[in-house]
Amino acid sequence: MSSTTEASGTPGFLSKERIIAGEGFNRWLVPPAALAIHLCIGMAYGFSVFWLPLSKALGIKEAIKCGPDIGFFQELFITTCDWKVSTLGWMYTLFFVLLGSSAALWGGWLERVGPRRAGVVSAFCWCGGMLISAVGVYTHQFWMMLLGSGVIGGIGLGLGYISPVSTLIKWFPDRRGMATGMAIMGFGGGAMIGSPLAAELMKRFANDTEVGVFQTFVCMAVVYFVFMMAGALGYRVPATGWKPAGWTPPPQQTSNTMITQNHVHVSKVWGIPQFWMVWVVLCMNVSAGIGVIGMASPMLQEVFGGSLIGVEAKFVDLDKAQLTMIAGVAAGFTALLSLFNIGGRFVWASLSDKLGRKLTYIIFFVLGGALYASVPASALAGNKLLFVAAFCIILSMYGGGFATVPAYLADLFGTQMVGAIHGRLLTAWATAGILGPVVVNYMRDYQLGLGIPREQVYNQTMFILVGMLVVGLIANLMIRPVNAKFFMTPDELAAEKKLAHEKASASEVGSGQGGSAQTNPLWVVLAWTAVGIPLAWGIYRTVLSVSKFFN
H-helix or E-strand containing 304? Predict the structure, then answer.
């Protein structure tokens, strides 16, 4: 809607005023709206399913390799040879760099215009980016893929990722961790649905002259657009001062409490020590975890070799057929880790409501450090059970760290601008996305260059990751309640609420969203069913992969 319409006193369809919930609104309709968006943008984790088909988009059966004189910049425009997998991987890097930077840049805008408008923009960016990428695949122009999915899609990722955070925290002040855990669980589950879906679509569209990728991009963009728009239009925000029935905020009895009733403006967080401590906490937790995700499959294969298939032989001594078999086992291991990553987002975030956010992160760092340190010993002993169990718990805490941090920010900085503050914090994720894989991959190459056996090259890496967690632990222990001088005054808070178009009730804007009629429980069931069916299908497909590991 035009700004003229809104300025004239009639709120536009995408305006925040239009989505203020009435008295009888059921807050359990909001999490499935958030999940609908997160399950779609979470496919960013699964984009690697396209790399191998795209690496032979021209050759179909075998890749047409570029000459040694063709560098990265030439690959952006060349149409006569296939892209390398390493080149395609830059799209993955752009996803998370743009996710963090766009969330930081437009987090304040999101707080003021509301989650509906941000969700709609996210849908257009993410799905429109996929359509541009489809044209890039069809014309064999890699720069279009970087622009489409990498840049425009990355902006959609950032806006979609933080769009429900502030809203969910305000709807569930009594269960902040659980609420954000539900949504961010969806981001972890996006690849679990999208990867097998993409594989099935590519198989259907592939023929003697096509690998089926651009058609798959188009189909997924259309499906995702429907889901994301439904999620964006399903968002509602509570009226100012709303509280769950029977719940009262915990009294702020002392200045030492870690849960404030006041609010910090997003423009001030760069200068607040606690923000940077939480930044380090998230960066170190993610750096360690993301490094493991990237090396999980090769690490299992190289450490245990033929023992994974009952053959007494090291990895380097296996033949091609045996290598194929253990690759299948490793794929099951990776799928198992994804289940723990997703489950940990909900379980740990929910536990943080009982334990407190600071103690939850202490557990992440202390337990995680002990598990990383135990890996070399379990590998040396050939104990696959302990090895796998350690990484499953580690990945659950990696996911739990993502899901718990929005509630940690709300505790420290208040709820008024928590979405915008969370957006700025996601620059820690962008940093970790570079730091973790670089440290792990270069250490592995360095150890191999020294002639260290493959089954031992990860030992030093584990202790480097322990060091990262120690840094995170120290930062977490240093976090104290925010100094009162950083909080908004009552006048500043009132001005910010006016800018954010907050109203005491939906009837104030005549949007038709108000009233006291209770939400029909059938709508809640239908909303959860709409996101539950694809999530259940993704879990089913993942469990099939996991079964290869246990068999």
Answer: helix 273-304
Question: Do residues 117 and 265 both lie within one domain?
Answer: no
Alpha helices in 305-319 (DSSP H): none
Helices (H), 17-150: 30-41, 51-54, 72-75, 85-113, 115-139, 142-145
CA of residue 74 relative to chain centroid, distance: 32
DSSP H helical segments within 427-520, as ranges?
Answer: 427-449, 459-477, 490-499
Predicted TM-score of the model (pTM):
0.87
Q: In whole angstroms, what is the distance from residue 115 CA to residue 20 CA?
A: 11
Question: How far, in Å, CA of 396 to CA of 124, rounded?
Answer: 32
Among 440, 431, 446, 480, which Cα is nearest to 461's?
440
Residue 2 lies in a domain: no
Whether 332 contacts 384, CB under 8 Å: no
Q: What is the mean pLDDT of each run of 10 residues along the chain (551 residues)?
A: 45 82 90 96 88 89 85 87 86 84 91 93 97 96 94 95 91 92 89 90 91 95 97 93 83 64 93 96 92 76 84 83 83 86 94 95 96 90 89 94 95 93 92 80 76 78 92 97 94 86 58 55 94 93 84 69
Same domain, 299 and 401: yes
Could you tell me the residue range of the domain that residue 137 belongs to?
Answer: 28-241+503-551
Residues 225 and 370 in one domain: no
Say if residues 192 and 539 touch (Cβ distance below 8 Å). yes
